[in-house]
Amino acid sequence: MAAVFDGVDDRFADLSSPWVAIGQEQCFHQMCFAVSRAEVMPGYLAQSGEQLIRVAVLVTNRSTGKTRSDRRLRAYLVDAQGRTWHEIPGLEGVRLTTTIPPQTSVTSEPVFKAPGDARNLALVLTHGRGLPQALVIGDRDSLFHPVVTVPLMTSKARSIR
Fold first, then answer.
1. How far lies 2's CA from each of 41, 93, 149, 153, in Å?
2. Does the CA dihedral 55-57-95-2 come out positive or negative?
3. Top-confidence residue, 96 or 45
4. Which of 74, 111, 144, 159 has its CA 20 to 30 A from that of 129?
5. What confidence score (pLDDT) does residue 145 get?
6. Predicted local distance difference test score (pLDDT) of residue 72
């Protein structure tokens, strides 16, 4: 059985910073991403008290005429202490950066390895804080804009079979 998390923990590290609810889209131009669930994968490749977290993300190309991908997109997890973990390559199946036909969606399931003591995990989708977007006022990846997160874990986990 795996624990599935599908809500927001009221004790999340800093809900005063921008966050997006599970199921709500985040769009970068015509490519949109919505987290549908997160689950802890029991025992699979986890060692020394680590946990593997698989996050289901619906990736949608909103373009009406062009096949698109978002090659600059990066995803990572952050916890209440501000620690970060990047995707484990090769376990996600369909990548977040896959090429998608117009008006089509696919589900990507990136996997992250975090220590067992990581709490209040949230997903961050970003293009990074590099140039030119780091200097654009109001851009989500601007140096002065707080990171937008998707809180994943709740204290009320339910089991799936």
1. 6, 19, 23, 13
2. positive
3. 96
4. 111
5. 58
6. 87
Global pTM reads 0.77
Beta bridge mates, 5: 38
Q: Kindly tell me if the per-residue pLDDT of 56 is higher than 80.
A: yes
Q: How much of the chain exceeds pLDDT 70, in percent?
A: 68
Q: Angle at the Cα of 80 (from 145 to 20), degrees rounded to 5? A: 50
- CATH fold label, 2-160: Immunoglobulin-like (2.60.40)
Q: What is the dihedral of CA 15, 54, 143, 79, to 10 degrees?
A: 50
Sheet holding 150-151, edge to edge: 84-86, 74-78, 122-126, 150-151
Domain spans in the chain, listed from the N-terminal domain onward: 2-160
